[in-house]
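Operator note (shift B, R.M.): manual run for DNA polymerase IV requested after the automated queue skipped it. Running by hand, logging everything below so the morning shift can see what happened. Input copied straight from the record, untouched. If output looks odd, do not overwrite the archive copy; leave it for review.
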Amino acid sequence: MFIDADRHIAHLDMDSFFVSVECLKNPVLKGKPLIVGGSGDRGVIAACSYEARKFGLHSAMPMKLARRLCPQAIVISGDMEDYSKYSRMVTDIIADKVPVFEKSSIDEFYVDLSGMDRFFGCSLFTAELKKTINRETGLPISYALASNKLVSKVATNEVKPNGQLEIPFGTEKSFLAPLPVGKIPGIGKETGELLIRMGVETVRTLSEIPVKMLHNLLGRNGLELWKRANGIDDSPVEPYREQKSISTEQTFHTDTIDLQFLNAQLTRMTERIAFELRSQNKLTGCITVKLRYANFDTVTKQQTIPYSGADHIILTVAKSLFQQLYDRRMLVRLVGIRFTHLIPGNYQINLFDDTQEMIRLYQAIDSVKNRFGESFILRARGITPGSGY
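Run finished. Output pasted below as returned.
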């Protein structure tokens, strides 16, 4: 197998991103077992601090179990608006510094530095990029530099938190060899258990299994796992592209049939992501409403609209879609809304009922929200008793 020695791929990963943002907002939380996720027993962990992880906590763990394992943990519901804001800050810094990067999640990035070794040196450049991100955002970040995406990602996970590592070309296989097989991306629970039952506990053992045997055992996935175990990955860094949608959803602590409550939640969510839409200077041309009943049946309905970013236009459509969807008179578990068909756009008179008053109203509302936060000003019909607003 051939590995391109000229490739230099860095993987950057924000350390426990949601938790780091919360600690940045409230430094008192630093060093404490902190959980970001649903506060009720039906919620799950979205992220947890390294102090909490010492008790066995991890993302996607049910909150009820997390509280049992770590009763002293501090639970915060989280704020996706803030997380998105900081994610965009990091994205902007990286976009300003590097020619090609891939945003693989809200807090992970791949950077293709191939060719830059002739100028600054890839190691020095990546170290400086880490310092810049930390200095300008206040958030900790870890990274690893290698010849491909696979090895750089695995290496980053090995040096977190706040670490950095370079895997020189030609040492990919020896770096991976002593690691447990579960460290290889693509090895899930079932495949991992199967390999361990076969006595394959380390990446070295996996890499030494004949390709044909792995193919017979796992099919096409067997060949891919053999390549990964040998540190081979030729997947390119996909240039970052603008998002295709903006969405949010809410799972309720208790299933409900209260229409006043459901409409209030839908209004609140729609208003929030409509503000996010306008903050990104975008307009939407399609609205989708999602509804999940207590028996887990999930239904969606969408409608194309003239491109708009106006709450009163979007809300009218969203409520109409909800009324069409809610036809079973069953308890509801979840409501969600999504905007798609996004285009760049800003305030346009014909999108605001042709009135200057409406334009000035939205400008004033968004100005207040930008200054004091999106929850500072809300529609009365989006407020429910006991919500804290």
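Quick read of the result: The longest helix spans residues 259-279. Residues 347-357 have pLDDT under 50 and may be disordered.
Leaving this for review. - R.M.
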